[in-house]
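User: I'm putting together a teaching handout on how sequence relates to shape, and I'd like one worked example. Could you take Tetratricopeptide repeat protein from Paenibacillus agri, show the sequence you're using, and then write out its predicted structure as tokens right after it?

Assistant: Happy to. First the sequence, then the structure tokens directly below it.
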Amino acid sequence: MKQAIEAAKIASDNAVFIQAVVCYGDLLSETGRLEPAAEWLNLALEEAASMNLDTDVMDF
């Protein structure tokens, strides 16, 4: 999983990076390692927030 995260960073592929980080955080959570899981999941949130996504289409 960490290889996928590193490869996404190198390729500047934010979507794959976020997906890999979330998967890794979920894996850590499922194995009872909650503190490291929270750190990885927060990293995914920070990355998503930094992407400046156009979310206007979500406004109804």
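A couple of points you could highlight for students: Helices lie at 2-11, 14-30, 34-50. The chain has a mean pLDDT of 89.
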